[in-house]
Amino acid sequence: MNNFRILIADDHEVVRRGIRALLEGHAGWEVTGEAQDGREAVELANLQKPDLVLLDIGMPNLNGLDAARQILANRSCARILILTMHHSHQVVREILAAGARGFLLKSDAGRDLVTAVEAVQHNQTFFTSQVAQMVLEGYLSRDDEKEKYYRDCLTPREREVVQLVAEGKTSKEVAVTLNLSVKTAETHRTNVMRKLDLHSVADLTLYAVRNGIVQVF
What is the pLDDT along the chain (217 residues), one digit of tens a residue? Predict the structure, then answer.
């Protein structure tokens, strides 16, 4: 079995070394390289083709969010986990909108980094515990009565589509997984967005997390 390949990007060498030490102690994981800014992260991701890129959100030359967008534009199957020192509702939305699978506070990295990487490795979403609580309590979504209506209006097939899209799969990958045509998969996705009154994958992912369609760690 091939190793799970990880690229680390942070502008502080001591942080990179600490993360590397934590990850290299895990069987089956391989750190392919380190980047000290966003542009270098994009270049190394294109060259090394890692399975996961750990990105600091506040890097020079190119921030982590824009680096994530560029990495995923070049290689949509890559997984992104964002590291940050601060969190807010807006930051959560921006991170998910950029295509990341979740994010981890640097202050929690020593405790949660391995769990976060394991979650992302298995196509699950990871939020640091404080943010997971915010999402589950509904601060980023509708009130409970409306949420129940929107949840109940989806068919079982549409719920499957929600999960796959929230896990980062493209319409083609959804079609293959569900044994559908690409056109049918895209139709389901369009119907889901219309029914839920959502306008982005970030919003859809937040919906999926709050309703237990995808797991939160």
Answer: 689 999 999 999 999 999 999 999 899 999 999 999 998 999 999 999 999 999 998 888 888 888 998 999 899 889 999 998 876 666 777 787 788 888 888 888 888 999 999 999 988 888 877 777 666 665 555 555 555 555 567 887 888 898 888 888 889 999 998 899 999 999 999 999 988 888 888 788 877 776 667 655 5
Contacts of 143 (CB under 8 A, 6+ apart): none
Residues 25 and 72 in one domain: yes
Q: Which domain holds residue 186?
A: 144-210
Whether the Cβ atoms of residue 81 and residue 55 lie closer than 8 Å to each other: yes
Q: Tell me, yes or no, whether 14 and 75 share the same domain.
A: yes
Task: For residues 81 and 181, state if they share a domain.
Answer: no
CATH number, domain at 56? Answer: 3.40.50.2300
